[in-house]
Specification:
about 80 residues, mainly alpha, about 0% strand, flat
């Protein structure tokens, strides 16, 4: 029986097949030839006020979470 190019016998063959498959969508671009991006930050900014993170506040916020809304597998409410 003829082997298909995607038939793999070991991890190295699998890695090479995946690399060949996914590299077909890459774009080759020259090194150090980038368009200048527009400046998105102006000189006017507001400083962030100080804040504290502590175990008690994290536990308090976690207790306030509505876990009944969770629908993803592995995260259902007890």
């Amino acid at each position: 029986m003829a082997r298909h190019k995607w038939d793999c016998e070991d991890d190295r063959d699998k890695a090479m097949a995946l690399q060949e498959f996914f590299s077909s969508v890459y774009t080759r671009e020259p090194d150090n030839d980038f368009d200048k991006l527009p400046r998105r930050v102006n000189n006017q900014f507001q400083e962030m006020s100080d804040f504290n993170i502590c175990q008690e506040k994290i536990e308090e916020k976690l207790q306030q979470l509505n876990t009944a809304k969770v629908t993803r597998p592995g995260l259902s409410s007890p």
